[in-house]
Design goal:
The complex is a heterodimer of chains A (271) and B (323).
Chain A (H helix, E strand, L loop, with lengths): L15 E12 L2 E12 L3 E5 L6 H9 L6 E6 L2 E2 L5 H6 L2 E3 L12 H8 L8 H6 L1 H21 L15 H14 L4 E5 L7 H18 L2 E5 L3 H7 L2 E6 L2 E6 L1 H6 L1 H7 L8
Parallel strand pairs in A: 3-8, 3-9, 6-7, 7-8
Antiparallel strand pairs in A: 1-2, 1-4, 4-5, 9-10
Chain B lengths: L2 H8 L1 H27 L7 H19 L3 H23 L4 H21 L1 H4 L10 H18 L5 H25 L1 H11 L1 H6 L4 H27 L10 H13 L6 H13 L15 H22 L8 H5 L3
Helix pairs in contact in B: 2-8, 2-11, 2-12, 2-13, 3-4, 3-5, 3-11, 4-11, 7-8, 8-11, 9-11, 12-13
The chains are: A alpha/beta (271), B mainly alpha (323).
Amino acid sequence: MTVESSAGGHRTRHDTVLEVDDVTKHFGGIGAVDRVSLGVERGSITALIGPNGAGKTTLFNLVSGFIAPESGTVLFNGRRIDGKPPHAIARRGLVRTFQITKALTKLSVLENMMLAAPDQPGERFWSVWFRATKVRDREREVRERALDALRIFALDHMADEYAGTLSGGQRKLLELARALMTRPTMVLLDEPMAGVNPTLGRSLLEHMRQIRKDQGVTFLYVEHDMDVVMTHSERIIVMADGRVIAEGTPDEIRRNQGVIDAYLGTAGAPT
Amino acid sequence: MSAPFLGAILSIEFWQYVAVTAGIYSIFALGLQLQFGFAGLLNFGHIGFMAIGSYTMAMLIVHASLPMWISAPIAIATAMLFGLIIGIPALRLRADYLAITTIAFSEIIRIFILNSVRWTGGPQGLLGFATEYTDFSRSAGRRLSSITHIGFDPDRVLLVLVWPTVLLLYLVLRKLTRSPWGRVLRAIREDEDAADALGKNPLAYKLQALAIGSAFAAIAGIFFSYQLLYLTPTEFEPLFTFFAWVIVLLGGTARLGGVPVGAVIFAVIFAGTRFLEFWPLSLLDDGDRAAVRLIVVGLILIGLMAFRPQGIFGKKEELLLDR
């Protein structure tokens, strides 16, 4: 599948699932995201890195519909999604997680998972009454799928507990598992490993790779741990001061002078 | 203890009246339970929707000569429509704006009723809408008496109309809140952005909850009209909204079964203490005693918050989960 090239024609890559073109968003005069263009290849694991305040989370908010861009376009699967509300974007297969986890605390872990499943007619008021059998059948399927996923993420023993009782790391796992319940084409993960202990963090990364392999899901994730970024990503996008300053493979990024300069003097310099 | 007090406390008619009141409160508060307990909506103007239900029905009967079986559904639909009209702008804003908007709305409705004398009777009240109902009530009472061999006065007929309605509406909400629809609603209550990010449209669900809750308020308003048999704007003051809040908190947030229990307790305390006129209350006049009842309700609420903040049926562990 070929995606139409962006206005500038600077990117004619064969299979770009997400294409951000010349997107800008200011907060009180400061260009949080300033004329950013980037592309994410279908089926890739791409890291988005950059110093604090580089605009990574703002970019996520722009792509996922939580903020509308002032200018520029966002194409997902070749269709424009900029200015669309988050739920419309999620239904098209682009799902995100949050830097500060949003476990629905007073729902059980299983309910958190089942909520995310698409195509549940029982979410419509009249179907609850007039398509009860269909709703029940679908609910049974969704439940099975949710329990399977929880087993993979080693959360099945917590299925009936309130999500609010999970640890920080477990919440990160739940968010990823829940995002995957929507059967996404692409997942945006905002610091999936922040506050997660190394063991859980590794299993999270393994899940990510396995899911990409099995289902061809594309991942774009923000991460500060350079070891993780360099070993687990095929491509890396580097942002600084609201702009994309480099894009490439881990090797290319490691050698990029601009990237080294952007990180100079900070503890997180790429090695 | 004085004789009138004893007389009242032993009279079945009095307790019948309290029971009808509790049933009406239940329906009213079930609507708020859906809105607040399940959708997290801060509706501080619930009484406005009840007033719309009461007055729309009464005015259609009095001015348009419609039968009550047609007026009542129109009244319910009107309340739902107003729920949507208020909700579409207010629900787009932060949660607390809904509280401000709804309380202002309920006062606008009351003051509008107070001033459009030609249609609502204004402060004089609206009469003459209940003829069809009282006829129905009388014949229903006769029929019930012939089956059960006990007397059925109007309050007793209303009693057997109100409480089955409470049960029916309770079951409707039970089904709804346990459905995937209810799961989305609870998710939105917990975190709107998370629900949005998972493909659920928060505004659409909050509007539905607001409209359904408004329908419940209107149904309560219809029964209320037939309990009073006349309507005045003073019955629809903002205080009434907070009766529903007390009932919801008393029974337990997001606990449907808590609503009728909370409503009975509230009705007994509030209506049932009307006749408490023994010493030292006998030192007070009627108006002051009415105020004392509110003080009692307030103290119970304070006690509840101090010793059982989750309400009678609420789960304590849920309170601890709030972020």
